[in-house]
What we know:
4-stranded antiparallel β-sheet; 11 helices; alpha+beta; Alpha-Beta Plaits
Amino acid sequence: MVPRGCGKTVPAGFPADCVTMVQNELTRNEPTAPALLIRGLSKSYRQGFWGKRGRPAVCDLELTVGRGEVVALLGHNGAGKTTTLKAVLGLVRPDGGQIEICGLDASRPAARACVGYLPESPQFHQNLTATELLDYYGRLLGLDRTRRRERIADCLQMVGMDDARNRRLSECSKGMRQRVGLAQALLGEPDLLILDEPQSGLDPLGRREVKEILLAQRARGVAVLFSSHIVPDVEAVADRVAVLERGRLAEIKDLQRRGPARGFKAWIAAPPARLATTWLAAHDLRVAIRADGRWLVETAAAGALGRFLSACDSHKIAVYDVQAAGTGLEDDLTDGREAVARETAVAPC
């Protein structure tokens, strides 16, 4: 075995010139380099009988993912999220641009060896068990038998599949196969995790476990780039969000630097009629919705909301939900979508 700079090994059967090339490339893998650097990435697909290029799937994309950072790609269907991920992995050939992984050209074997990947709908050998499948991938990674056993046990436990380790994949649900796919991505202890819809098909418990796994990987210094349609899950995990619109980078939102709330909302049980008018006026509230015996009340002041919730408790009035208005990612995207659409409409690639 030949040591690799990412903490893993190159299989001994590799040709000598290939091993030398990988070693030389790994000497350039500086810890100060970002885990992923994308400059001017563009990609369009040929369409029709004559193979004419259609509208670009990705156009002049610029993105950096630092080590120990979680970045989410967010956008509508066809915005270019999956194409971006595939271009980073070398699964599609870009029309132009530059991609570097850990300071290395993304097309280099040494760069790709530092990546763990989970596709949106992973397809595995159905007659294998989770353990057998991961053992197969461990062999491809060049891990020896002892190390394979350790990593397989650790990864299956991490994704909550330890009890089903000997179950055939044909007998597993979609969510269970998704967990096995995530274990496969983590098996080689990558420096960069690329995940396409990692929470697809998972139940609420599974989604929470994936969130915890991603946060644990970030704490270890692993960079994560993932795509998702689920805004609350993105908010719970990502440090930054790259919003794609028609193949272009519309904006990057830093979730660590959100502004103050613009107001507050609370769903409550409808109060008695004798309290309603004077009570709302006293607490500087207004009723936005009345439906099914519930009220949605709004206020601009946090202090007013606190006094109101205390009054609800005193009068035994149920409080169902409380939200800060205007700080959520979904609110920001909704507010800015029309402006983004106008900008991309007048700026073709």
